[in-house]
UniProtKB/TrEMBL annotation:
Keyword Flavoprotein assigned: yes
Ligand binding (FAD): V350
Record-given protein name: Uncharacterized protein
Taxonomic path: Eukaryota, Fungi, Dikarya, Basidiomycota, Agaricomycotina
Domain of life where this protein originates: Eukaryota
Amino acid sequence: MPHNIPHVLAQVELCALASRKYRTSVSEISSYIKQRFLMAHLVVLPYTINHKDVIIIPCPFKLLWFSLDHHLLYFVVTIPFSVPVMVSLILAVYAASLLIFPASAVSILASLDDLTKSEFDFVVVGGGTAGLVVATRLSENPHVRVLVAEAGGSNEGVLNSIIPFFAVELVGSSNDWNFTSVPQAGLLNRTLPIARGHLLGGSSSINRMDYTRGSDDLYDHWANLTGDHGWSWSSLKKYYFKNSRLVPPADGHDTTGQVDPSAHGYGPVEVSLGGFPAGVVDDRVVNASKLLGGRFAYNRDLNAGDFVGVGYLQSSVGHGRRSSAAVAYLDPLVSSRSRPNLSVLVNTVVTKLYHSVSLNGIPEFKTVELGQVNSGSRLNVTATKEIILSAGVIGTPHILMLSGIGPKDTLASLGIEPLVDNPSVGQNLTDQPQMLHRYLLNITQSPDDVLRNATLMEEAFDQWNTTKQGLFVSPSGSTNGYLRLPENSTIWSKFEDPSSGPRSAHIELIWTNGFGPLGAPVPATGHFLTINTVVVSPISRGHLTLASSDPFAKPVINPNYLTSDFDVFTMIQAIKDMKTFVSADPWKDIIIGPVGQLSTATTDEQLALYARNGSISINHSIGTARMSPFSAKWGVVDPDLAVKGARGLSVVDASVFPSIPECHMQAPTYIVAERAVDLIKARNGLLRI
């Protein structure tokens, strides 16, 4: 710790106390400091201690927190309530932060005015799941200058993102893009919210943290679809090992028989099993699986290549905290005060990409226009080597079309000059529909007790905050299953199998001890089992397009949920499978019965209506900038992820997936991003592969 910190603190306090003639409130001071110095990751907390109003600034934010083994350094400024926002106070606080963060540290900036240079080797558009992988890996070379432009804010201090139990509480918040679909014909014309992370880490900072790679069939299928063996399971093995590592669950329980350590690697994302006992549900899930066998057979590790069966859920959680792309890839660089060649600009929207024309007439993209809503500021930056779009399945095609890459008639109708006529941009939108079902249980305690009681919630938080133990260390579910449709199903006379292969699923079941998801009103009495049924290999395809040429206007999104009879049939089968599973002997002592419409829907017709009424998005959209073979006239990017018909531009996020993984999207996105880094390095003379 710098020896002169106490002296700086004394100066801060004197500046504050010397400025009483300026009347304001602690909350106003806090708001100002947050707004002005988000670039320094200041977390400003107003408190009352011994009847005095104070501001507490945990500093240096998460960085020193880690380097001091989780002991926070506090700047405590004693300020009477009628204290002043003084320039001297702000400058003193900022000076103190500079003592801890030398200029050589990675720069995290909140204002375009804070960007000191306008030329970089690479500009990464989007600081989400894929974007932070790409940016941090490329900047491992100290001679490579990288800028990340993230539309959302910092992940620092966002408690609902950090605490695993609150995994999806940020959905619908300011840390969510809060997209909405158009009315869905397959869902009785309902519109659905579509969540996407709007902060550093992207959706890895707000998702349920399920870490599922999918089957070996999936990646071999991608290799066949793209004509590139580099996308096969065997070729990608080094990348999924490079991305994550297995860590012990928070409660330290023996995981023998629950996971295969040999299937896991050495990367920065921490993956673990549930760290809070849920035996009343988990034990019955495993026992029922072993009793029923067949389609419900137990699978020790669903991440080992065979993605069919029932097993323990693996989550991107380490030591009781979410392990997002921001936490795993970016935060260590900030805490180590390294990587001066990496700049991260938050609260910044990419409004357009500008081009010049190369000798052969192909547009070459080198300039990125950055914009900020609050200030109205605009700034152009240059990527001398490559622009990498990692804005996600919605943001990436949106930016492509705003920049003149997309269906020419659509672009021209909005006054956008078509540069690359590509009808595939924004098409092939694929998502997995899900339903939530609940059963009343004959048990005496569950997480529902805590959710109904403010005192118990506070105690659970205190336990997590002090020991990283207890209910809050895990997301709400800790077991899941992936099932194939029966081989003798009548549906096969009408449809070909849309899954990647025999080791891939059509259905997912997720079991949760409690009235999930968190945020849903918990009944005043009773204990519940929540089961998600998910169609993981849907045939329905949707699309998105521009609403206008305004870069800040949200696009028109139509996922077309349940417009295929196959998807409706599969959801009905998933519900039947769920009922079969909870009818097994291990459940008979605790299952009282189903809750709501599930209790009355019995025929296929009733179940179909129940599905159309109750299906929602699991937020696993992919495919809007689909990868295809080099020679293909369809698709948006080549197998090396370079945009077809353009130069200097690539896409790295879930929008490039050539087919939907029959799993959750986080791990496949990481795997694609890790390989993308080597592809980008290779074509820019930075790596031989």
